[in-house]
Amino acid sequence: MNIILFHSTYGLRPAVHAAADRLRAAGHQVQVPDLFEGRTFETVEEGIAFQEEVGRDELLKRAVLAAAPYSDRGLVYAGFSFGGSVAQQLALADEKARGLLLMHGTADIADDAAVDDLPVQLHIADPDVFEPHDWLTAWYLRMQRAGADVEVHSYPGAGHLFTDPDLPDYDAEAAERAWATVLGFLESI
């Protein structure tokens, strides 16, 4: 499977490379673009400030350019938190998308979004301060309305970025459960 994996608001950090290596070890080809051009951040607030400085349109442009050389193969778009938001926007706009893997984050969905049974898997903390229950319910219904085949996996008590061992949110048990589920999802596509 060809996968493009987008980093979180913290930037392209070791945990993203480790995730890509885990997916490669399972036989997948994984691209890991750096949308922040080498910048990494210690806090969510710093990362959000950088995103606002660069601008959402510029970051999406960078993501599109990173995916373009691989999109003719039919990509699985994947991402962590902010990167999940980016992955979702690209997957819903790519008629050749093979799947969408969201780790810790979602994005709004255009009213005219339409896909043909796109496999979507979301892994989310419960509760998650960045993805409240009301938002997730509305997101789920809109993704189904758009034609996606959606699975949501929630992890009670885990922190927002619970798969990143370098952050306080890390939850080893939840992370291992999530990765086992992710690998099964990718094998099913």
Automatic annotation (TrEMBL):
Domain Dienelactone hydrolase, residue spans: 3-188
Keywords tagged on the record: Hydrolase
InterPro entries: AB_hydrolase_fold, Dienelactn_hydro, Dienelactone_hydrolase-like
Keyword Hydrolase listed: yes
Gene Ontology molecular function, alphabetical: hydrolase activity
RNA-binding among keywords: no
Protein name (record): Dienelactone hydrolase
